[in-house]
Amino acid sequence: MSSSGKLNFALVKWGTVLSVIGALMVILSGYAYQWGWWHFSFGFSLIPWGTGGAIVGGLIAAIGLFRMSEKTKNYVIAGTLGIVLALAALGNIAYWYNEVQQGYPPIHDISTDLEDPPEFNAIAPLRADAPNPVEYAGEETAEIQRSFYPDLESVTVGFEYDEAYNRALEAARDMPWEIVDENREQGRIEAFEKLAWFGFIDDVVIRVDTTSDGAGTKIDIRSKSRIGRGDLGVNAKRIRAYLKELEN
Q1: 109: helix, coil or strand?
Q2: Digitized pLDDT (tens) for each residue of the chain, 248 residues in all
Q3: Do residues 226 and 135 share a domain?
Q4: Could you give the CA distance from residue 6 to residue 69 in angstroms, rounded to a whole number?
Q5: Same domain (yes/no): 187, 85
Q6: 101, 130, 160 — which closes off a domain?
Q7: Per-residue pLDDT, 100
Q8: pTM of the entire structure?
Q9: How far apart, in Å, do the first and last CA atoms of the chain sit?
Q10: Is 93 helix (H, G, I), strand (E, B) or coil?
């Protein structure tokens, strides 16, 4: 084999190795945090390095693959893997860049009732060690929410209380949540959702109450992250998804 041929095989081999290591760094950045290997801030710091490694490695593998005059099956598979991982890394960058460009506000406590947000009860002990306290974030957060999420409002249904509670509970059970408490007498449903990758947990409380005029039933929902200042719109999206499920 000529020296150029050996170089091309080396480019494919080591480029693919680099792209695989980079991809594993990105994947493990979150899951290893869940396993207690390191702090989430260290996990975040690995993401750009892993992403860069996957992209550079895929580029090197692609150069070596396309320069090969005699392509063997194993090296074609390896080079293709490196290229795919590089494209996946680029796609991940594009996705998160688009999310950041949405201009989500730096808040993590979202409620359909900003005057009297539903309160956590059964979930409160589960948040004892959480950086974000169980209490509502306050009027500043409410004002920001009014500006960014004006569509999130209480839902009033024409059903009597028991029927409305049943529907609210059924919709909650259809969500990807872990139900913590169901209290029909107090009109409260509490749950949490564990997010993939880093495993961050967001809590949800739903309140069902008869309207002041007795003509219907009012349903409110609040979603709050246990950790982090901003949430990239996750809590608002969760509330919208629940309200949509409630309509079905």
Answers
A1: strand
A2: 577 778 999 999 999 999 999 999 999 999 999 999 999 999 999 999 999 999 999 999 999 999 988 778 889 999 999 999 999 999 999 998 998 899 999 999 999 999 999 999 999 999 999 999 999 999 999 999 999 999 999 999 999 999 999 999 999 999 999 999 999 999 999 999 999 999 999 999 999 999 988 889 999 999 999 999 999 999 999 999 999 999 98
A3: yes
A4: 11
A5: no
A6: 101
A7: 85
A8: 0.89
A9: 66
A10: helix
Pairing relationship of beta strands 217-225 and 178-183 according to DSSP bridges = unpaired
* Distance of alpha carbon 18 from alpha carbon 20, whole angstroms: 5
140 and 234 co-located in one domain:
yes
Among 101, 119, 138, the domain boundary falls at 101
Q: Could you tell me the residue range of the domain that residue 203 belongs to?
A: 109-247
CATH number at residue 194: 3.30.530.50
- Kindly state the tokens that stand for 170: 């059924």
Q: What DSSP element (H or E) covers 176?
A: none
Do both 148 and 230 map to the same domain?
yes
**30 closest CA partner among 92, 77, 73, 91:** 92
Q: Domain check: are 165 and 206 in the same one?
A: yes
Number of structural domains the chain divides into: 2
Residue bearing tokens 């107090």: 186
Q: Is 27 exposed, middle or buried (0-12, 13-18, 19+ CB in 10 A)?
A: middle
CB 79 within 8 A of CB 64: yes
| Same domain for 163 and 215 | yes
